[in-house]
Amino acid sequence: MILPIRAYGDPVLRKKAHDISRDYPGLTSLIDNMFETMYQAHGIGLAAPQIGLDIRLFVIDIRPLAEDEEYVDVRGELQNFKKVFINAHILDYEGEPWKFNEGCLSIPDIREDVSRPETITMEYYDENFVKHTQTFSDIRARVIQHEYDHIDGILFTDKLSALKKKIIKGKLNKIAAGEIAVDYKMRFPK
Prior knowledge:
Its cofactor is Fe(2+). It comes from Elizabethkingia argenteiflava. Removes the formyl group from the N-terminal Met of newly synthesized proteins. Requires at least a dipeptide for an efficient rate of reaction. N-terminal L-methionine is a prerequisite for activity but the enzyme has broad specificity at other positions. The structure is a single chain. The protein is an alpha+beta fold and 190 residues long. 25% of the residues lie in helices and 29% in strands. The strands form three sheets. A five-stranded antiparallel sheet has the order 2-3-4-7-8, sandwiched between helices. The chain has a two-stranded parallel ribbon with strand order 1-9. Strand 7 and strand 8 (131-137) form a beta hairpin. The two termini are 24 Å apart.
């Protein structure tokens, strides 16, 4: 089932999400619905707050990036990178921060360069509630950090300079007011 994606301005996007237990009601269906919603919106990641739930859950499928010439050196790893992250907590950030142009399904038609560390180590549970401690680098670490920020109530626009925030403020207000056309299901706060 395709779920509406919450737009910028929705209070749930600013909540710090809470951990869930393995017996969370309908977890398997929820994960399936999140992937379906993400694919329909042509995304590569989706966090539970983006569908209105303040729980520590996000899904990622960055296989579409495997076709991008920029990622030739990690193509094989990207082709198999479809993951579920439950109760994720980043334990360590490493490496030089690097800029990359990011966008967000909750903030359509806005893309900006965001600086993030190149490597992270995190603890999380997968869809079978098996615990993992794993290190991720390159574009994988970036996408994970973007989705991880969602479960902490942080949006990529929060990481922009004051000037950039001022420049995009009008666009953000239009998104919050629902004055934008998107080709996927959205729920606007106003």
